[in-house]
């Protein structure tokens, strides 16, 4: 069956977005196409309809293929919990927490599972577009590799090598990578792509010609630098620090921030600026403060306490609006307990005391796709002006957390969950999520993607506009925007690459 693998000279050279582009191009050309990344390392994850956890990059790639994201597209996900340790997710479920060396020594044991997944994809689809991780020139990892050349060899996939010219040194990076490959690996590389180019390609042509002579591989195209309203590549996020629009949304950039894709829909809202802050000097006077998810809530709360941001947040809470998501929600509460030492050896820590909730970490992780009704009275009074929105009474997203939170007398539930993993819940098992304080200005939720639905986002942003004397505006439909941006991405990449050569590498003839 037809396949192609995109590898890179380094992390963040644009592998993920180029895979998404090729997926959309092949789909537009009439092929059944699917993405595959055997191992991803990211704190941005997603929950599938059957309650399994996978990397967000493959979610965007699935959408580019016109598919519902499924865990076979990313069978192994590594979520760093510290500089030396990661939570290992295998086939969507927690496999365990391991040091880098422990995981490196167990990787070979996953090969049969990965090959089985890939063989099934070959049966079900016309083309598999594979993505590597980091660089195949990481020669210290070669003997147990399951994500770059090791994976390519396992399924006999042709490889295209991508370099990022925006970083500088792209010719050295491409040539140096080829130099460090073994002879059989060099033969597997069928060409190179230069990504993120700014300027006149003619100026680049002498270098392209010399590179082809040096590495004896053709240049398949030069992709220009572009900005589209799509999710950021996992390791290449632009954490903007400037206020660029009338509505100032500040996000605490936690040391172990996770699922910052929760903010993407806000970033694309007209008149809204989303910036990230790490110190009290950067705090300013935001219209909305968001405390996002964290892979280690306790350690990140301690960090906020030590750098003075916690005190700043508490002072801001008297007049400002705060929304906490997952770990950020837990931090806003009165107390966090970790009796099983899920995160740290510290079994209990005092929260910020801004929401009357208490959280206890459990042994099992909650991973569910949910739909929920808004039950907080503040929101139920609102009537959405946007016919393209889902009704305000319902929001959707997904949960990924170890903790459960209980309510005190001064906190009311924000939502009630009515559907989990595609299954409607009976009235007697509907449960509450999130909390809002009595003043209605501080709230939190376990639901990631809470802003993707346009009516909840419209309500929140219009409350901020109202406070500043600005006119109300309709929110955009994020899903429709994503689809149009994926088509734009495909147009840019199709024009930049030698698609005839790409189809030759894939092993298929382009459909008329």
UniProtKB/TrEMBL annotation:
SUPFAM superfamilies in UniProt: Class I glutamine amidotransferase-like, P-loop containing nucleoside triphosphate hydrolases
Keywords: Cobalamin biosynthesis, Glutamine amidotransferase
Residues covered by the CobQ/CobB/MinD/ParA nucleotide binding domain: 4-225
Active site: 326, 448
Pfam families: CbiA, GATase_3
Lineage: superkingdom: Bacteria
Keyword Transit peptide appears in the UniProt entry: no
Domain CobB/CobQ-like glutamine amidotransferase stretches: 248-453
Pathway noted in the entry: Cofactor biosynthesis; adenosylcobalamin biosynthesis
NCBIfam families with a match to the protein in the record: cobQ, PRK00784.1
HAMAP family, sorted: CobQ
Family, similarity comment: Belongs to the CobB/CobQ family. CobQ subfamily.
Known function: Catalyzes amidations at positions B, D, E, and G on adenosylcobyrinic A,C-diamide. NH(2) groups are provided by glutamine, and one molecule of ATP is hydrogenolyzed for each amidation.
Entry protein name: Cobyric acid synthase
Source species of the chain: Clostridium yunnanense
